[in-house]
Write a structure and sequence with these properties.
By secondary structure, the chain is of the alpha+beta class. Helices cover about 35% and strands about 40% of the residues. The protein has two helices and eight strands, in the order ααββββββββ. The strands form two sheets. Strands 1-2-3-4-5 form a five-stranded antiparallel β-sheet, covered by helices on one side. Strands 6-7-8 form a three-stranded antiparallel β-sheet, covered by helices on one side. It is rod-shaped, with a radius of gyration of 29 Å.
Length: about 130
């Protein structure tokens, strides 16, 4: 009778071990085949955000050290202040931790150069 219980316990243990092994193999396969995510920085978000402004805005021009443009019925200006790129009216922070930022605009292009988190960057946008 004791041998019967030992045999049943051994069979249950083998079944559980097989189930646990298959589960671990499946999880390992899933983890190894997961797509790698890219690190999206605030600089990437700024690029997309400003690209949308370029698409919708018009009449881009430099006024002193500010980039001004019309969007819908309002005039907005972007400028560098306290290591940030700011859009006004209001006080929307477009990019933080930026230094030595220089904004230039011509009839056909807008460029931003500076340092983001101590690394140099340059962004060039073509105006419609």
């Amino acid at each position: 009778m004791i041998r019967g219980f030992v045999l049943i316990e051994a069979l249950i243990l083998l079944w559980f071990a097989g189930f646990a092994f298959m589960t671990m193999m499946s999880l390992s396969f899933l983890l190894l085949n997961m797509p790698l995510t890219e690190n999206i920085t605030q600089l990437d978000v700024f690029y997309v955000q400003f690209d949308q402004l370029v698409t919708k805005g018009k009449n881009f021009r430099m006024v002193k050290e500010e980039l001004c443009f019309e969007l819908d019925t309002r005039t907005f200006c972007i400028f560098a202040e306290n290591n940030r790129l700011i859009k006004k009216p209001g006080y929307e922070i477009l990019l933080d931790q930026v230094s030595e930022c220089k904004i230039e605009a011509t009839q056909s292009k807008v460029s931003f150069t500076g340092r983001f988190r101590h690394k140099p960057f340059t962004m060039l946008f073509t105006l419609p």
